[in-house]
Design brief:
single chain; 274 residues; alpha/beta; eight-stranded mixed beta sheet; 11 strands; 46% helix
Length: 274
């Protein structure tokens, strides 16, 4: 009953703004340059998968998600009430060990933190120092991080791994994005891309478990968040093996809903040819 009520409250604005989203998307799609941008973005995400024939349709969906996300960024009351399935993976976690919460820039992820925190889970989330600095920061980014702070304490990555090791203490939950661009070559959706191995390395060093959180739609098209069974860092021979297991979980969610990726040419791994 609680999940149903949350779904009604949380999805109401999305239903109400559908006409506005389509109208705005129609105007953007009419621009050859902007349409090509979204086609290129979706090609980057699913171009090497079985969903490649759907790229035109998915690219249009990516555009509509972009318009909707920009609107909902200013509706934190709704995006921080997303239904969360299997919340017990965090509320009943082993408090004698740290937990790394692995997420991606997928769906309305800025509201993910508040949605989880409403169940009594305290979190920290890693972010680059330059995006945390409010001086000269674009207003939409200030709003984005305001949403994140509704459920998590933001921690700068500037202190390096030593500083991050200090916050991964028993009982702590630290959220780390798994699709940021760095120097580790990984395969995601059949494409070789540049990812980051920091999260599994930190998990291994601190004897953490890793819980992945993914975004999905139910049979009626209603979004929800899914927490997955913990991955125990002790069960993997290397951090790279743990990273592969983490990404395998995220692959399923992204392939099922690729148009919900947030600006994939910016936030979705790195291109090896770059």
């Amino acid at each position: 009953m609680r999940d149903r009520l949350e779904r009604v409250r949380g999805l109401f604005p999305m239903v109400a703004i559908d006409a506005m989203v389509r109208s705005r998307a129609d105007k953007i799609w009419a621009s050859d340059e902007r349409r090509e941008y979204f086609l290129e973005s979706m090609t980057y995400v699913v171009g090497e998968t079985e969903r490649a024939p759907e790229i035109p349709e998915l690219a249009r969906g990516l555009l509509e998600h972009d318009v909707r996300r920009r609107y909902l960024r200013y509706k934190p009351r709704y995006i921080t009430r997303q239904p969360v399935r299997n919340i017990e993976h965090l509320t009943q976690r082993d408090l004698s060990r740290p937990t790394v919460l692995s997420f991606m820039h997928h769906w309305q992820y800025d509201g993910m933190f508040g949605s989880i925190a409403r169940h009594g889970v305290e979190m920290k989330a890693l972010a680059l120092e330059q995006v945390l600095n409010p001086v000269g920061q674009m207003e939409m980014f200030r709003q984005h991080f305001s949403n994140v702070r509704r459920g998590a304490e933001l921690v700068s990555t500037d202190g390096g791994s030593a500083a991050l090791l200090e916050i991964l203490v028993p009982g702590a939950v630290v959220a780390i994005a798994s699709d940021v661009a760095s120097r580790t070559e990984v395969t995601f959706l059949n494409r070789r891309v540049l990812g980051a191995s920091g999260a599994p390395r930190l998990a291994t060093k601190t004897d953490s478990v890793v819980v992945a959180v993914t975004a999905h739609r139910d049979d009626d098209g209603h979004p929800y968040l899914q927490l997955h069974a913990p991955l125990d860092s002790r069960d993997y021979a290397t951090p790279e093996d743990l990273l592969d297991a983490m990404l395998a979980i995220h692959e399923v969610a992204v392939l099922a809903w690729p148009e919900a990726i947030d600006t994939p040419l910016t936030n979705f791994f790195g291109r090896i040819d770059d």
